[in-house]
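OP here, attaching both records as promised.
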Amino acid sequence: MRIILDIILVAGNGVCVKLPGQISQRLAASGIRLTKQREQVLGVLMQKPDHPTATEVFLRTKKHVSSISLGTVYNCLEALVATGLVKQVNLDRAPTRYCANLMEHSHFFCERCGSVHDVSITMGSGWELPPGFRVSHADVNLRGTCPKCSE
């Protein structure tokens, strides 16, 4: 009998981030261990879903793991992306951002303040593809002004 435990990370500000037990299984299936560093990086991404850059993830993680380096954060993010636990968000020539929301969604980039927001859109039904083409994955990024900047 195998027991799967949930992992709870407690951030410096007392906020708890609960990581489902399937995370360890998903990493293990990819041949990757859930190290303390990966756990902290994923916790940082789940705690504040604002699509941070690797540098922002590094600065947030360093508050909890003072010995972590920027290179280690990049390696952790690469491993988490490879296992499908984190998505890369690429917006034009801006630095890559990271998203721990694994639900089907797109991203809205505010051209005024630079914030990135998750948005739900219906995929596929409005596209006219040539005969024989089948979409397996789509990355849709929207640009404009967020409600805060539109006031």
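Record two, same layout:
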Amino acid sequence: MLQLEPMVHLAPLNPALALELRRATVSDVPKIGAIIKYWAQKGRMLERSPELLNRSIDEFLLLENAAGELAGCVGLHRMADDLAEVRGLAIHPDFQGKGLGRWLVMGAERLGRDWGLQRLFAWTYEQAFFEKSGFNRIPREVPTLPEEIHAECTRCQFQTNCQEIAMLKVLEPPRLVVS
């Protein structure tokens, strides 16, 4: 008999508390998993298993308030010497439309620059959001995309019917400001 998992319900967050951007730790895996699962169940992103999140937790940034409530998260997964994938971008529904997704992408861009990357890539259903963040739509075909990206697609449950859009951003090198 087929058993369906119960829908994830996220507790309301206190919007009055200030948010902090920080690197994720292993203790954050359940919160990150819950917010990603919430949006995956709505068909807006791919779910990430606790095992995958544990293995890649050092790739994640998150926004949380002083009470430790998760407002959003994003992962940055290195795919090649000069390229990383923005993945796992999820915002708590109480904070949608407040610019937090953009803040998280900017954090991922900063991390990418710190790593010496030249390009960021994303698979998304939210083309307009990524365009506002400076990404451009690119063709899905090889050789436009590195082999590493397509190798990961072979493990995806939607590989034969993928509706995600490929987006790419070329990072500008950091500028030295002298006053």
